[in-house]
Amino acid sequence: MSSIHSHSGNLVRFDQRGAVGVVTLCRLDARNALSVPMLEQLARIMALCDAARDVRCIVLTGGDTVFSAGADIDVLSGHTAATYPDSVNRRAFDAIRAIRTPVVAAVAGYCLGGGCEIALGCDLIVASDTAQFSQPEINLGFIPGAGGTQLWAPRAGQGAQARAALTGDMLDAFAARRAGIADIVVPTAALAAASLELAQQIAAKAPLATRAAKAAMRAPWGAPLNAALEQEVALMSGLLASADAGEGIAAFLEKRKPRFEGR
C-alpha cells in the first residue's frame, strides 16, 4: 500500500481504493475554501500520488455537499501586483494542473472560483445533481488567476468561456453537462460510487498508456496555453492593486453590493 497516508492532514485526506487514490478536501466548515495551507497540502499529496507506482488514477473530491467555494479571500487580499505571480497559492495551482496521472473530479455543491479552476484542470468531471460551477471573480473586481479565463473554452467553447469570465454566471449540473463542463451527472448519493467506478476503469488500463494519452490530449495546451496563463496571472496581479478589487473584497466580507469606480 502507498505511504501517502502519512501525509493526510486535517485539510486534505488521502485514501486508497485499489489502484485509485481518493483525495478529499476537508475544510467543510469553510465550504472547502482554498487557504494557503490547504493548497500546499493538496499540491503535496497530488504530487505524491503522481509519483506512486500503485496509484494509477486519482479521484479529487470535496465530499457530497461541496467541492470548493473558491479561494479563501485572505489568500487574495494579502497580495499585491508584485507578490501574486510567485505566491505559494499560484504555484500550488500550477503543480496540481501538471499532474501526469489521470484525475477524475467528483463535484457536489459549489464549485466556484479557484475550486472550479481545479476541477477544470482535471481530466474528467463527475457532477452530482447539486453541483454549481462559476467563476465569480468578476463580481469582486478582478479576474480568475489560476486558469479560469482559459480552461472553460476547451470543454465548452469561447462563448461559454466569455460568459463565465465576464458575467460570473452560475451553471447548475445539468447546464454544465449540456455545455460540456461536466462529463457525467448523477444523484448526490451516487457521486462517490460513480466517480470511483470511472477511476477504476481508467486504473485498470496500462498505466504508461493512460499517462501517454493524457500527455497527448494536453499537448495543445502547451506553449500557447502556458503563455495565456502567464498573461492571466499578470493581469490578475495588476487588478489586485486596484481600488475596485479592494472595494470588491471589502463588499464581499461586509455582505453588501460593491461600488466600482474604475480605478
Envelope shape: globular
Q: Uncertain spans, ≥5 residues at pLDDT below 50?
A: none
Number of strands: 9
How would you name the CATH homologous superfamily? Answer: 2-enoyl-CoA Hydratase, Chain A, domain 1
Q: Output mean pLDDT.
A: 89
> What is the CATH topology classification name?
2-enoyl-CoA Hydratase, Chain A, domain 1
Number of domains: 1
Q: Give the strand order of the largest sheet, numbering strands 1, 2, ... along the chain.
A: 1-2-3-4-6-9
CATH architecture: Alpha-Beta Complex
Give the end-to-end Cα distance, rounded to a whole number of Å: 55 Å
State the name of the first-level CATH class: Alpha Beta
Count of DSSP H/I helices: 11
The chain-level structural class is: alpha/beta
Radius of gyration, whole Å: 18 Å
Q: State the helicity in percent bands.
A: 40-55%
Largest sheet: 6 strands, mixed
How large is the share of residues in beta strands?
5-15%
